[in-house]
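User: What would this chain look like folded?
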Amino acid sequence: MAATVFAACNNKPKFMVEGQIENAADAVLYLEENTLDGILVLDSLRLKADGDFRFHVTAPADCPSFYMLRVGGERICFAVDSTETITVKAAVPDMGRNYTVEGNVSSQKMKEIALMQQDLQKKIVAWEENEDMYPGDIADSIESALSVYKEKMKQEYIFADPASAAAYYAVCQSVTDLRGSFMLFNPLNDRDDVKAYAAVATAWDCYYPDAPRTVQLCNAAIRGLDNTEQPRPAVAGADGPKVTEIGIIDVELPDINSNLRKLTDLKGKVVLLDFTVFAAKESPQRTRLLRTLYEKYSKQGLEIYQVSVDEDIHFWKTSVEHLPWISVHETDGHAVSSYGVESLPTFFLIDRNNEIVLRSDFMKGTLESNIQKLL
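Assistant: Here's the prediction, encoded as structure tokens.
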């Protein structure tokens, strides 16, 4: 039995971490996994004079996982989502800054975030230790720096690609001041921070719906949206306010008449959010299919919100001029990246409560049967 279990474990897909740690002869290098339950040591070795190392580890099964290479108190963080090979080169001391990482984009972005976070932390410590500054000026300086830093994180790492491991890493950062350690993005009590959480939660729910990290993100975002929701007048017979942002990332784009159309304005309807290119060869046939579905179910509450990314805007306008549903156009790719769209066409089904329930990549059954269930 033991041999069978051992063989089964060896047959599982693995990823590899290799590289070189200079100036660390005879030091112990640990490979650790940062799990939701804490730090788990996966393997270790004693470095030789050349600093070369290599670890083979079982690959994550349900979503990207986060790992660390550690020598003493110095760590290098990286992410793995498959069976890739991660190559790390570093030097002791200051291993946490003096390193390179190759193998996937998220790990490289995590390095960028880690270095900026370290610089932010140094500024906070310097202000707090500056005896020539008034306490109010110290607090204002820290608050201003945190605000600028968070905005950079949101625009360049979170909203730019919310489905990535780097976005998760960015939204889960913590910093320390005289009050102690606290999360940079407050997932429970700050409305803007909660929206950043909700963006990552929505994207991860599309790609990794059953992963524990996704459940954690979604639960925190839902609680945060509920905690920070603006009070509304009571309505007779209503069940109370509903959370809207967790289900979808809002999209607000112009139609052919330059009127801005918001996705969240369609709450109460079953929405087919469709990302497409009308210049594609299969587009006419697909449009006929959508028209059939729209004519059949629009009176029951179906709406289509179609986002075109065609380069030729005139061609797009001509193509959608007589379509009965909402057709908008995007040029900067923000909505496409926010929803983690990697191929076109891709669609999402959104229920009457503004919550995504299906992505085309994971659809079972026909599109019509899934629409009928929601209606």
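Confidence is low (pLDDT under 50) at residues 4-8, 231-246. If you want, I can go into more detail on any region.
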